[in-house]
Design a protein that fits this description.
The protein has about 60 residues and is mainly β. The chain has one helix at about 5-10, and strands at about 20, 25-30, 35-40, 45. It has a single domain, classed as N-terminal domain of TfIIb (Single Sheet). The protein contains one helix and four strands, in the order αββββ. It has a four-stranded antiparallel beta sheet with strand order 1-2-3-4. The longest helix has 6 residues, at about 5-10. The two termini are about 15 Å apart.
């Protein structure tokens, strides 16, 4: 599990905006560009090449 404090410290490696964690603690989603980053064994994989594309919905309107 990723500590909530960690999401306050890390940012999107592509656009440098804040990241939000999904409800089951498996992904982080950028609130600006919408890219998603998986969490593996409690460690966020914040590599630009590992980002998953998403549609650019405003935060809270799309599934993380």
């Amino acid at each position: 599990m990723v500590p909530a404090r960690l999401t306050q410290l890390v940012v999107c490696p592509i656009c440098h905006a804040k990241l939000r964690i999904n409800e089951d603690f498996t992904k982080l989603r950028c609130i600006q560009c919408g890219k998603r980053y998986r969490i593996t064994d409690g460690i966020p994989v914040l590599l630009p090449g590992a980002a998953e594309e998403t549609l650019n919905f405003p935060a809270g309107l799309s599934d993380l």
